[in-house]
Amino acid sequence: xxxxxxxxxxxxxxxxxxxxxxxxxxxxxxxxxxxxxxxxxxxxxxxxxxxxxxxxxxxxxxxxxxxxxxxxxxxxxxxxxxxxxxxxxxxxxxxxxxxxxxxxxxxxxxxxxxxxxxxxxxxxxxxxxxxxxxxxxxxxxxxxxxxxxxxxxxxxxxxxxxxxxxxxxxxxxxxxxxxxxxxxxxxxxxxxxxxxxxxxxxxxxxxxxxxxxxxx
Length: 216
Prior knowledge:
Blueprint: E1 7-12, H1 26-29, E2 50-56, E3 60-67, H2 81-85, E4 89-95, E5 103-109, E6 114-120, E7 124-126, E8 136-142, E9 147-154, H3 155-160, E10 168-182, E11 185-192, E12 210-214
Parallel strand pairs: 1-2, 1-12
Antiparallel strand pairs: 2-3, 3-9, 4-5, 4-10, 5-6, 6-7, 8-9, 10-11, 10-12
């Protein structure tokens, strides 16, 4: 029996509307559906509002996270995956099917560093795998009330990885928020678009995915 997936509709726009600082200009993003229904089922603490938007133009898939948080933690001791994994970040996962065999993870921090890897079930991660550099771009920005992480991924690379079927991409949308607890120890709040209904935080599970429908 197939699970019923939560759905987000990705609006089709004209070919890329360039803005030098960001991936798309603001008038393009205004056309996107704004996804805000995130949850953190493992903690009762409130968390900052997150707005997620996505668009496509048949050549590229565009995404934009705006997080209304200015208290950002970045681990800057180096640019390793360990360092990114200890930083405030947003995440997009894409799966080929509900068996998660395989799925692909993009974890992006507020400085634009990308942790990209291929995964198999049971958190079997291949950190040697990389999204082809020519097929992905990520940019970041900050203002007085929020930070933005946005990017573009070529539709061709998504097709090459068998991630678009019937104009649909099965995806997870997540955020990791780090806060100082005590003695320079940081505690993470894990935030997801889809509630995976797990006892402990786990994005690496079939129940954490929804679907992006590429509108025509």
